[in-house]
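Lay summary. Proteins are chains of building blocks that fold into shapes, and those shapes determine what they do. In this project we predict the shape from the chain. Here is one chain we studied, written as its sequence of building blocks.
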Amino acid sequence: MQTRNLFYAEGASIPSIFSPACLVLWASCFHSSGAAGIRARRKEDQKTMIRKRVCSLIPLLFVIGCQSITGTYTDANGAVILELRSGGSASLTFMGDVENCSYTSSKQQVTLTCKESPVPTTVFNIHDDGSLTGPPGSFMPPLRKK
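And here is the predicted shape, written in a compact code that computers can read:
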């Protein structure tokens, strides 16, 4: 039985770069585990890409979360307290009287609906500093988030 050298082509005196052993060696330069390594590398690239996408969304979610309208708003004297809760429920306290309300919000306005109030719907404007003001000419003072 004759032994065969994998680095030399048949009848050649110098190593062939296309011999099976050289090709495997060449592939191992890029990744140590050959074809399985290439698949693992692709999988790792996919994980990295997903990780980058998720990490790029975190600041966006943080900014959106910071601009949440929910919270407690009050005037300077504390006579008017507006509490906006998640899910669209709210309560308006005016001089100690509490009314249960609901609200909807858009980018620039909050619409408060209190069924038992003499004025059932009040539209508040949202300002850049996060404060709320009622309609012009209304009794409602500016409200700031606590």
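What the prediction tells us: DSSP finds two helices and eight strands in the chain.
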